[in-house]
Amino acid sequence: MKDKSFVLQKMDSKNSYVYNSIFIMLISLFILYVPVVNSMQPLIKAPYSYYANFLIIFVLWLFNFLNSKNANFTKEYLQSMGCLYVLGLYCAISSFWSEIQFETLWRTFIIFGPIFAMAYIVNVDRMIEKTLIASYKIQMLVGLFLAILMIFIKIFGLMMWFNDEYSLNYITLGPIRIEQAVYYSGATLRFSSITGNPNILSYILLISLATTLILFLRQSIKTFYFIISFLIQCYALFLTYSRTGILAFGIFLFLFFWLNNSRGMNRLRKNIWKFMRISLILSVFAGGIIALLLQGSNQRLSLDLAGRGKAWDLLADVISNHFFLGIGFNSSQEFLREMNVGVNHAHSLYLGITAEIGVIGLGLFLFFVCCTLGILIQQFQKYKNNLEYKNQWLMYSGNIAIIVAILFHQGTEFSLLRNNYLNFLWFFFIFTTIKLGSDLIKRENGGDPVAKNFSNRG
């Protein structure tokens, strides 16, 4: 008994490094990338926020690397990471034909480097459930904080009008002035809290609403607190008037409850493999199909929001002229800025990727997505009906639904494979879910007896 207690104490000591590292990482990501202050300026301006994020995650990785010398890498982790390494390598190679060669290479390093480091930190975590529950609570509190702040400024603040598309809603509390940008979509006001953009707020609320629901269903928060926080965040999501964000949350709810339904799982088992077999083939032709469909004006499809229709037309021309290789990773922003169309954002992950790294790069990205989702679904199929770990599989299925919902959200946004908050959160959910599934498999097979002694509740 004494030896067993010593093992548990030793494991707790080592794992505290990982737990604290992930806590620091998630909080720093929010501070570095989300709040805007003083006339909608970031709290920490780019590129200094990029450098700070890279340095923080690198230090955390080094600290965990030195304290986790006997790390084991599962087959699932290596498969997913292998696909991501190939994608990152191709993005780096695209700097050779980019007009901004050094910037393309540097951006690849500054984006993929922290992702690889974060994946390692997650992989050496031996109490991934505790880490996930803590991350859920952080995301819930972030969304609730932004929602309450938005509603507070909306009710008690003043409006400063700039033009027919944009205004500033602000409130002054002594020496402190808190601002939120307000956009117009027809006659509808779209509020953004302190994120500076209602679309940014919508994906933060998408994640916070999802994690709030997961915490409630696994009985990690009280019913009263769930009802109040969930309703406030839903109201805030509605005030963003982000159609993609609202639809993405609907997709999350559908997938989450479908994955936890036995009959639905049987249908999913049959369909998922069909999807995976044809997805890679379809991805090869995706760039060409997009280019053909978007040769004409896209204003009706895009509703011409923020001029994205013009941006889509220009990117479609880029795809036609650089079909296979693209113009270089993370270079579409400079291209759109040079064309002076009033927008410097692709507003579509799939269109932007195809324009930047060609149909080859799009195929590599979709292959990574399909390979990872295939791994997650395989694990879920095998161990779904084990009631002993029902709370863990509830978290697992919720993470899958979040990952897919974010992919849907990116149909009219381009936040993944960029240096921002959503990008790192998305990859965080991917690798924590893979790690959670691997740990549950070990427990089922009796390969991790120490982990069985930890609580099943958060």
From TrEMBL:
Pfam families noted in UniProt: Wzy_C
One Gene Ontology cellular component: membrane
Localization per Swiss-Prot or TrEMBL: Membrane
Species this protein is from: Bacillus cereus ISP2954
Keyword presence, DNA repair: no
Membrane topology: Multi-pass membrane protein
Keyword Transmembrane: yes
Protein name: O-antigen ligase-related domain-containing protein
Primary location: membrane
InterPro entries for this protein: O-antigen_ligase-rel_domated, WaaL-like
Residue ranges of the TM segments: 16-36, 48-66, 78-98, 104-122, 142-162, 200-217, 224-240, 246-263, 275-294, 349-377, 393-409, 421-438
Domain O-antigen ligase-related: 229-366
Domain of life: Bacteria
Record's keyword terms, sorted: Membrane, Transmembrane, Transmembrane helix
